[in-house]
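Entry for the shared binder. Reason: the reviewer on the internal report wants the predicted structure included alongside the sequence.
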Amino acid sequence: MKSMSRRGVLLIILGVVTLAATWLGVFSPAPPPQVATAPAPASAPSAPAPPSAATPSSSAETSTSAEPAPTVKMSTVTLRRGDTLLVALGRGGLDRRASNDIADALRASGADLRRLRPRDELEITWTLDGEPISVRWEPSPWLGFAAVATDSGWEVRRAETRPDVRVEAVSGEVRRSLFEAVEAMGESAQLVRELVEIFSSEFDFTADTKPGDRFRLLIEKRYAGDDFVDYGQLLVAQYVSDGRVLTGVGFEPAGGRSAYYDLAGRSLKKTFLKSPLEFTRITSGFTYARPHPILGGVRPHLAVDYAAPVGTPVRAVADGTVVMAGWNGGNGIQVHLRHRSGYETEYNHLSRLAPGVRAGGKVTQRQVIGYVGATGLATGPHLDYRVAKDGRFVNPLGEKFIPGQPLDGAERTHFLRDARVLTRQLEDAAPF
């Protein structure tokens, strides 16, 4: 059976409210029907009345066409930070007993009152005598509750609707920033975060994003009626920079978690992230000859410096073990990690360590290990990030890290078939 729309269900609830109010004697009985006057015979037409004259019959018609007097009134309470249901209902004019009864009835019907949020609204319907007869609350666009007063107490009607999921294409071109390009299309910054996450091991959006880069996404959008509510799964993402086309297709292996793979079925989640910061800019690259801003002279700078405000979270680029966490001379507050395959990473000039990060502990990829600062020999807030392989520092921007795990067997065949269909759908909907 097809699910009924939320509007339809709520209209039924309103009917129940009206019926309940009638049982309580709120509404006046309907007026008796008017008897229509038979038309005059065609052979005896009557003379029309002068336009300026108001005849009794016209007065009667005006009276019967007037709007009936309202029999209920409605009010709305907007929740504030820290409000409970009882507090909000009390502010709306309900007494303590009625508020408790309504809360108990809602809980019994499965409503999670812990999901009350600031700016949620409670819609209260009253009789003209000031008796509450219904309270409506929608914790989400897909779920609504209406507590209705009956002779036996408060009863709750639950209205549910399924999201209208539409697969749509989103595409754009970077002019100044990826955020600006996405927001210029009326889309949410959430899409930027998802796009960056998908390609976080393939592309450094901090260092490599430039004007003229293009992107397109095939994504599920969830609607309630004609109103967009939120995003569902991002099915396919493509990003083009300097002629390089990155493609990520979502796929859930049997017994595994949904992940993104390239068109050959290789996982896009590699052992190392391209950058320890999500969004920032590079102020100094890896070089063997750089004028030192504090000590003077020309010295090697075997790191990449990322400019960022104090307090910006710093992520571990890979799973690893903490070798050192604390003050380390000119490096200021430092985290030093050891990873598999002979790799080590250092994160210098931090303002502070993240809770629980200490020597000998384990960290996971993307875990926040500290926060950007300017401790040690630093001229301003930034992150000095270093990568070593087998004891020798290497350029983090040019290193080819360990590739992701590929799909194989029947799962790879299944993936390749789905990937062809989805990418063709994206290309047709949003051609470059």
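Summary line for the report: The helical segments are 6-23, 56-64, 85-91, 96-108, 178-184, 190-198, 409-429.
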